């Protein structure tokens, strides 16, 4: 997204005798308000005063002679004209970003900003190495990495807050383009009875049947977390239901509660191995049946990827293909 100080010449010329014209700043402000559904949230995101933001949106509406937003006590909603303007506005801002990238290529550099969304379990594994590789390969570009739940990140992809996200088992949607990256086996995570130094390192133990896991209390994320929904579907396939002891949205908090004996967790193995105290846990492969999450690389189907985004996607593919330690 363009920085909030972009002020170029008019994109559309005003009719004769009119003083105002539409500029990129107004388009960017409108798109951000429309995506966030609130002048207050947009003003914070753009680091501008709310009265100045409101004035620019009003000037845009006056210039276009259309009401674009309906203001209410809970925020704003788009009119039909506003929805049309949002589609055009995103396209305009995207084309400007592409122009900047092309100019950057002319001097031998890829520029722009790339926003990536990762689920918490993958963020622990990928954030640092991905950031390091990004700086090496795209030194003139900017990277933003956000953690979020799958449903959240799907919405962020659609609104343009994210360019790329890694999601477990994403639903089919005309708004999203999904590419299968890898399969991740899930483990039953149990507390290790003896956690004295040197008594273990989060290694793999004997397999645990899914029906046996269903008899243990579980610490799981709240719905509609993709891995929880996958676990519930697999248990339903064998006629079982999970015993939910506690719902916690956060890998670190889940693991802390497991170590305290509140219940078992169901997570990828790397979530434990990347934790601060992997020696506190036993990892049991789940069998009869296995529980495997599918990780997809997801982008918006409505917006073409910029060159910097394409390079970042290629980098993610390479990193996921590399063997992981542990």
UniProtKB/TrEMBL annotation:
InterPro entries attached to this UniProt entry: LysR_HTH_N, LysR_subst-bd, WH-like_DNA-bd_sf, WH_DNA-bd_sf
GO molecular function, a single term: DNA binding
Domain HTH lysR-type: 22-79
Keywords: Activator, DNA-binding, Transcription, Transcription regulation
Residue ranges the record marks as coiled coil: none
Any Gene Ontology biological process: regulation of DNA-templated transcription initiation
Pfam families in the record: HTH_1, LysR_substrate
Family designation: Belongs to the LysR transcriptional regulatory family.
Name of the protein described by the UniProt record: Transcriptional regulator, LysR family
């Amino acid at each position: 997204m363009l920085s909030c100080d972009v002020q170029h010449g008019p994109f559309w010329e005003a009719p004769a005798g009119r003083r105002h014209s539409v500029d990129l700043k107004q388009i960017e402000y409108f798109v951000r308000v429309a995506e966030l559904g609130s002048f207050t949230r947009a003003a914070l995101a753009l680091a501008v005063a709310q009265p100045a933001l409101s004035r620019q949106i009003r000037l845009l509406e006056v210039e276009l002679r259309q009401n674009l937003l309906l203001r209410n006590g809970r925020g704003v909603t788009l009119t039909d004209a506003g929805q049309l303007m949002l589609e055009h506005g995103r396209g305009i801002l995207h084309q400007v970003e592409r122009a900047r990238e092309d100019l950057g290529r002319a001097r031998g550099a890829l520029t722009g900003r790339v926003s990536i969304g990762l689920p918490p379990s993958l963020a622990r594994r990928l954030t640092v190495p991905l950031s390091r590789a990004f700086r090496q390969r795209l030194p003139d570009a900017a990277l933003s990495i956000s953690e979020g739940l799958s449903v959240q990140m799907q919405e962020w992809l659609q609104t343009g807050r994210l360019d790329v996200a890694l999601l477990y088992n994403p639903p089919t949607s005309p708004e999203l383009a999904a590419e299968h990256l890898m399969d991740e086996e899930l483990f039953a995570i149990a507390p290790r009875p003896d956690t004295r130094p040197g008594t273990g390192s989060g290694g793999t133990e004997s397999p645990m049947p899914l029906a046996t896991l269903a008899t243990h209390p579980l610490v799981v994320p709240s719905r509609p977390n993709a891995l929880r929904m996958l676990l519930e579907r697999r248990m339903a396939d064998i006629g079982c239901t999970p015993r939910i002891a506690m719902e916690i949205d956060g890998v670190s908090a889940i693991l802390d509660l497991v170590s305290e004996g509140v219940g078992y967790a169901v997570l990828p193995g790397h979530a434990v191995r990347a934790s601060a105290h992997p020696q506190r846990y036993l990892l049991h492969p789940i069998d009869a049946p296995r529980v495997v999450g599918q990780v997809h690389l997801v982008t918006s189907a409505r917006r073409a990827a910029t060159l910097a985004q394409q390079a970042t996607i290629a980098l993610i593919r390479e990193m996921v293909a590399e063997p992981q330690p542990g």
